Amino acid sequence: MFVLEAQSTVPLVTQIVVGFRQMVDSGALRAGAKAPSIRQFAHANGVSVYTVVDAYDRLVALGYFQSQAHSGFFVRSRGAAGPQSATGASQYSFDSMWYLSKIFENRGLRSKPGCGWLPADCLFSDGLKRSQRALASQDIDPGGYGDPKGYLPLRQLVRDFLASRQVLTPTEQVLLTQGSSQAMDLAARYLVRQGDAVLIDEPGYSNQLFALRHLGTRLIGAPRRPEGYDLDALEARIVEHRPKVFFTQPRLQSPTGSCASLAHLHRVLQLAEKYDFTVVENDIYADLDPENRPSLASLDQLKRVIHIGSFSKTISPNIRVGYLCANPDLIDGLARLKMLSGLTSSEFTERLAYGALIDGRWRKHLKTLRDRLASGHARLSNALIQAGFELFTEPKAGLFLWARHPAIDNAAELAYKAAEQDILLGPGHLFALDLEPSAWFRFNVAWAQDEALLQFLTEMQAASPGLFQANSHA
Predict the structure, then answer these.
(1) pLDDT, tens digit, for every residue of 241-299?
(2) Which of 20, 179, 192, 347 is the most interior residue, by most CB within 10 Å?
(3) Do residues 438 and 410 touch, judged by C-beta distance below 8 A?
(4) Distance from C-alpha of 258 to C-alpha of 321, rounded to nearest angstrom
């Protein structure tokens, strides 16, 4: 095995890539041989797992490695197809990129401004404990699987929540799911097949991007703008590719934090009608929005729109309770697919969520949370601007800010440096359709009170241009 030189001017990522390429080209590693695991290699060589993940992913892209789910990385046969498609676009391994995403969501790092969840002290822990105590006192039959569409009182509560947002739907058109991720997965597997063109926000919700890649769909980007969408590019791509479905997050979008204007929402629905496609609206951050904005579902009343929401973000990530609402022609098929893939969702957790939501302090919790996020936006926006960052937009609500620094070409390189200081950042390539390096970062403002992040930004600015110059050569 080759030896890494920590003092070399050649970045460690490059040393690892070159080292393995030489071993494969010389025959020291033969086709089919298993590479050391990411953590094993990182530990043996005294480097971060982030550096090894980046190197392995580049080796996949170069055609030297291939990944196998749950097994690791193996040397690819040199006679196999290389990393370039017929169009010359790089082909990345789904599994390696999925693993990279999980690494960047590692809860072991102390400061997590790049994550997608709320800190523990932002969650409705007290309400959940009260719900648990109330549930423990009830005489619940432990037998059976529950209603295929989910716990009826919670479905009725979802119906009432949606009515307050001008989405009028009967309880029969509400399907409870194991979080919004299952809802999006059900919609994708029900509506699209391998090779289908699928329209999705660009940049987009990372979990949805990975899931659609795994299904073998052709991802067509719908470029985001601060006010919603690039409508000219959107229609041009619809005309060219004729997608079957548009997966979008109009409100407080991840990663940009942007909200689509009313005019843009109307235009999306006009295009859906004109070119005959279904819209899947991911509205999981609605509870974080202090404004009662219109949604695609409120304008369309579930004719062409499938509406997805979740309680996991604001009660607790461990309460995997989401929901999906659709027209009668779709909802029964989606419910059957839910049964085929996992039978019913957990009535126990649905009862827990229901108890928390009818708690008298739920609304106060939401107001307190929204106020904290607004304060986080103000503080982090100011810190980023002082550090020389450019903001995509300033939503002043929700979880995210999307920002870039003019001296940084590849956000992943700075994310590796931050990880060495126990800080998790969210590099933009995780939200890119093509998985190419990005200059953008996703920041979670709920972690804006963390002094470690603010200190890191201050030190980063003081260290430029040297730090940024090092990034550009990594």
Answers:
(1) 999 999 999 999 999 999 999 999 999 999 999 999 999 999 999 999 999 999 999 99
(2) 20
(3) yes
(4) 25
> What residue numbers bound the domain in which 462 lies?
363-473
Strands 197-202 and 218-225: parallel
| CB-count exposure of residue 449 (10 Å: 0-12, 13-18, 19+) | middle
Task: Give yes or no for a contact between 33 and 74, defined as CB atoms under 8 angstroms apart.
Answer: yes
CATH number of 410's domain: 3.90.1150.10
367 touches 375 (CB < 8 A): no
In a domain, 19, yes or no: yes
Q: How confident is the model at residue 213 (pLDDT cuts 50, 70, 90)?
A: confident
CATH for 320:
3.40.640.10
In a domain, 6, yes or no: no
First to last CA, the chain: 22
In this structure, the answer to whether residues 176 and 241 fall within a common structural domain is yes
Concatenated DSSP letters for 280-307?
Answer: EEE-TTGGG-SS----HHHHHTTSSEEE
pLDDT digits (tens, 9 = 90+) for 173-182: 999 998 899 9
Number of domains in the chain: 3
Q: Are residues 326 and 399 in the same domain?
A: no
